[in-house]
Amino acid sequence: QEYVAESGGGAVRAGGSLRLSCTHSTFPADLCMGWFRQRPGKEREFVASIRSEDGKTDYTRSARGRFTISQDLAKNTVYLQMDSLKPEDAAMYYCAADPGAWICAIETKYYRVWGSGTQVTVSS
C-alpha cells in the first residue's frame, strides 16, 4: 500500500528553524514529492517540490531562499528545512506524492497520495 507520513512539526519563535520529514512507503522511480501548507480559512497552497529522478526542485516565491527541499533516496525520505521562519509560515504542512510524474506540479489535484499533516507554529 502506498502512503506518505510527515513528521517534524512544532512551535518556534520567528527567525527560528524547523526540519520536516516525509517518508514514502515505496518511493518509486519518477516520483514528485511536494510540500503544501494550509492556514486556517485558507486554501491549501504549494510550498516546494522535488523530483526523485534528478533532484530538481521548485519553490513558491515566499519559500525561496528560506526553505530547502531535499531527498534521501536510501531512506525513502524527503525533507523540508525551514529557516528564518515568519509568523505567516504557521500552518498545517502536508506532504504529497505524485508517482510517475516527470514535471512536478504546484496544483494539489495532481498529487495522488497525501499525508495527514504536521503542525508548524511560529510566534512573533
Describe the structure.
There is one protein chain. The chain contains no helices and eleven strands. The chain has strands at 4-7, 10-13, 18-24, 31-38, 45-51, 57-59, 67-72, 77-82, 91-99, 113-114, 118-123. Strand 7 (67-72) and strand 8 (77-82) form a beta hairpin. The strands form two sheets. Strands 2, 4, 5, 6, 9, 10 and 11 form a seven-stranded mixed β-sheet that branches. A four-stranded antiparallel β-sheet has the order 1-3-8-7, with no helix packed on it. The N and C termini lie far apart (41 Å). It is mainly beta and 124 residues long.
What descriptors fit this protein?
single chain; 124 residues; mainly beta; 7-stranded mixed β-sheet; 4-stranded antiparallel β-sheet; globular
Major beta sheet, specifics? 7 strands, mixed
Count of separate DSSP helical elements: 0
Could you estimate the helical fraction of the residues in percent? under 10%
Give the structural class.
Answer: mainly beta
Strand tally is: 11
Which stretches are poorly predicted, pLDDT < 50 over at least 5 residues? Answer: none
Backbone shape: globular
Q: What is the radius of gyration computed over CA atoms, rounded to a whole number of angstroms? A: 13 Å
Mean pLDDT: 95
**How much of the sequence is in beta strands?**
over 45%
Distance between the termini: 41 Å
**Secondary-structure element series:** EEEEEEEEEEE
Topology summary:
Elements: E1 4-7, E2 10-13, E3 18-24, E4 31-38, E5 45-51, E6 57-59, E7 67-72, E8 77-82, E9 91-99, E10 113-114, E11 118-123
Parallel strand pairs: 2-11
Antiparallel strand pairs: 1-3, 3-8, 4-5, 4-9, 5-6, 7-8, 9-10, 9-11
